[in-house]
Amino acid sequence: MTESNRTEPEGFEPFERPAPTPTKNMAKNDPTQQLGWERATLEKLAFASLREQRATRRWKTFVRLSWLAFFIFLVWLVMSRGTPATAKTTAHTAVIEIKGEIAAGADASAEFVVAAMKTAFEDDGAKGIVLLINSPGGSPVQAGIINDEIKRLRAKHNKPIYAVVEETCASAAYYIAAATDKVFVDKASIVGSIGVLMDGFGFTGLMDKVGVERRLLTAGDNKGFMDPFSPMNDAQKAHAQQMLDQIHTQFIDVVKSGRGDRLKTSTPGLFSGLFWSGQQAIELGLADQLGNVDFVARDVIKAEEVIDYTRRDNVAEKLAKKFGAALGDASVRALRTAPALH
Predict the structure, then answer these.
(1) Which end of the chain is less congested by CB atoms within 10 angstroms, N or C?
(2) How far is Cα 17 from Cα 307, in angstroms, rounded to an integer?
(3) What SS3 class is residue 216?
C-alpha cells in the first residue's frame, strides 16, 4: 500500500505527516551557507590587522617623539647652565656659593667655582663678586686652585671680590676666603681651623683578639702604608707628620699673605686648628666686619641687584651621571658573570 491510496479507518484522525525540512530558511540564517562569506570574513580580519598595525605605529611614533623631546630638553638644560639672568650692561653684584665639602666632583669643586668666577669677572655688568661661604672645609688642593684663580682674575679684571660667611668658614674654606679683599661674617659664624689632618682607623688589636690574620702582599716596604689592618711603624708616622707639617706651613703662608697686617699673628693657637666665633674672628684679624650679602652688595659694591653665578649639576647632568653609573654597574656585573678568558 502506497502513501497516496492509503485510507484511514472510520473514526480515526488522519495520519500526521512529518513537517518538511526548512532547508531554504536555514540557508538564509546560516552565514556559512551564504555566498561569499569567506571573503567577508577575510576582509574583516584584514581590516582588524590594519587597525592594529596603525595603532602600533602611532604608539611607536609617540614614544620616539617623547624621547626626542626629552633629549632636546636635556640639551637645553646643559646649554643654559650657569647663564646669569641679566644683561651684561646691568650693574649688579655677582654671587657664587661655596657650600658643603670642597672636593673634586662636589658642587664646591674648583672646577665649578673657578668657572663661575671667570664668568662673573668677565661680565661687564658685575661690579663686584661675593663668595657666599658655608663650608667646613675639604681638599687643600681644590682650595689652593681656587685661591690662585682669585688672585689671577682679580689682577686681570681689576674687580673687588669679597667673602661672606654664613654658618661656617673653616679649614679649606678659610683657605679660599683668605684670598679675597675682605671677609664679612655673622657674629655667631664659625671661622678658622687653620690646620691639616689625615684620619683613618686601625684594627690590628681587634684582629689579634678575634684571631683574624691579615694577608697583605706588597712590592715596596711602604706600599701598605695607612692600611687600617696593618700596623704603622715609627718611620711611616714620621713621614706622614712631615708631609702634614709642610701642607700646614703652606696654609699658614697663604693666610698671612692674604690677611697681611690685619692678622694678629701673636695670638696663641691661631694656627693650631682652633676655630672662633665671627666676633672673635674680627678681633683676631681673621675677618674684617659683620655683614651679609645684601649689605655688601648695597653698601660696599654699590650694586644692590644680586645675581647668582653659582655652577651646579643641573637635572640633565644628574640624570646623565646616574645613567652612567647604572651603565657602569651593569657592565661590571656582566663582566663578573662572563666566563674567564685563558
Answers:
(1) C
(2) 107
(3) coil
CA dist., res. 52 & res. 259, Å (int) = 76
Pairing verdict, β 275-277 and 190-192: antiparallel
Give the span between the Cα atoms of 78 and 88, in whole angstroms. 21
> What is the C-alpha to C-alpha distance for residues 290 and 287, in angstroms, rounded to an integer?
8
Residue 201's contacts (CB-CB under 8 Å, 6 or more residues apart) are 228
Tell me how far apart the alpha carbons of residues 299 and 291 are, in angstroms, rounded to a whole number. 10
> CB-hemisphere CA count at 13 Å for 257?
12
Residue 176 · residue 163 · CB < 8 Å? yes
Report how far residue 199's alpha carbon sits from residue 161's, in angstroms, rounded to the nearest whole number: 34
What's the start-to-end Cα distance of the chain, in Å?
Answer: 102
- Angstrom distance (rounded) from CA 104 to CA 122: 24
Q: Is the dihedral of CA 150, 151, 152, 158 positive or negative?
A: positive
Rounded to whole angstroms, the Cα distance separating 105 from 109 reads 6
Cell of 87: 644683561
> How sure is the predictor about 338, in pLDDT bands with cuts at 50, 70 and 90?
very low
Q: Which residue has the cell 651593569?
A: 330
Three-point CA angle 187, 154, 176, nearest 5°: 45
The single-letter code of the amino acid at 304 is E
pTM exceeds 0.85: no
Q: Please report, as a single letter, which amino acid is at residue 60.
A: K
150-171 mean pLDDT:
96
Distance separating alpha carbons of residues 227 and 17, to the nearest angstrom? 111
pLDDT tens digits, 3-56: 555 555 555 455 455 555 555 555 455 555 555 677 777 777 777 888 888 888
Cell of 5: 491510496
Q: From CA 107, how far away is CA 100, in angstroms rounded?
A: 8
The beta-carbon contacts of 71-78 under 8 Å, at least 24 apart in sequence, are: 73/316, 74/315, 74/316, 74/319, 74/320, 75/316, 77/314, 77/315, 77/316, 77/317, 78/314, 78/316, 78/317
Element (H, E) at 306: strand 306-308
